[in-house]
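Q: What structure does this chain adopt?
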Amino acid sequence: MTPPPPLPLAARYQRFRDDLFLGLEEPETLPGFDAALSEIELQSLWFSGAFGSEFQLEDGRNVTIQDFGIWNSGPGPDFVETAIRIGKDVHRGAIELDPDARDWERHRHGQNADYNRVILHIYVTAPESARFYTRTEQHTEVPQLRLRPHMLEADARPCSREAAARLGRCALPLRDMEPIRVTSLLESAAQFRLQRKSRRLHALIAAQGREQAVFQSLAQTLGYRFNQRPFAILAQRLPIRQLKGENSAMREALLFGAAGFLEDIRAEQTEGAARQHLRRIWDSWWKRRDACERWLSPQQRLRWKLAPVRPGNHPQRRLGALVALIDQWSAVSAPLMDATRWTLPGWRDTLLHLGHPFWSTHYTLLAEPAPRPIALIGSSRIHEMLANVVYPLLVPERTRLWAEYLELPALLDNQKIRRALQRLFGPDSRTQPKLRLQYEHQGLLQVYEDFCLEDTSACADCPFPERLKSWDTA
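A:
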């Protein structure tokens, strides 16, 4: 699927941004590319299409991924039922993705008949001193593909650093800029940010289809800051086409079971409604657990961050919200399948009224019931979905929705917004702009990431402050 054409304000901001860094080369390495990212995180990025779909093999031939397949839950290669094209020939089989080329032999895949159907071996690192070959038990050579930093979509690249929370050199020229020019800069940066998210979504659509891309993206927003990747992986392992075919009880059992939340608790630890609910889940989960055993191994089990997380944001409660969302999937997804069917009030109302017999009154599987029902998906989370999924998906397809996006209020700020404001406008709240709209937050974050996070000279060599005078409202 071809991404929509560039949006005009986004193109303007990109020219301004690119001019500042003209001549700078792409870094040879990316922080976290082959170190901080775990094996399953690399697999998740691959499976989502973040590296692309067209590559050159180590032997020089071109390869196109035609079908990313299914994330394997049992023994054998990582992804099954895949299809690739090398030259004019289409090959169907499995794909194995390892952090290191030598893992093929270290894990004895070459002696395992389950790996005879592998048609592509992907890895990140390899020995520089000698060529390493991948061969099956049948002594068939497997084509090799090495993933490199520049292949990864910019929006998917790991970034763990933050600029120091202090006044930057750009604060003075920004404070002196007319409000209309600041607004123009933030609006253009916001549209650029939205377009980048749109391209990322379209890469996911190309890899997995539109419905699955929407499902995975919405699920990821339920992970909040700390658990986005586990939610994305869970949605990849249990795609929406599979979950739609199950009854509600089995959907919940598969999600909570594959998430690993059922491994360490039993009904005997609970009482009342919690005990009844847990027994209901286990009545379904035990029938499928063996088929998901690989995902429960120490190497493949999801790593959830449980602290510091408020009770309302606990991943079990967020997963309960996802269960309720899937139960109403037709109403949730239909406006996102076709931009002409989109209505903001109707979609927001659907999410605000999601309910569940258990999760509307419980924070975790072991928690006491709350005294009154609590919204499964609140207004602030809906706004995150709108900013990160809905409008990046729909605005390029129906550009008049940009005006609707500009009116979205910013319900909450966060530490990153406050840090960016202090860096770019100074610590005095009286001199900081009053950012009351969602696009203003998004634009501020884009400027902060493009300049503050890319500068390693403590502001001394950053070209942004001097070039601000070249920004106008035309």
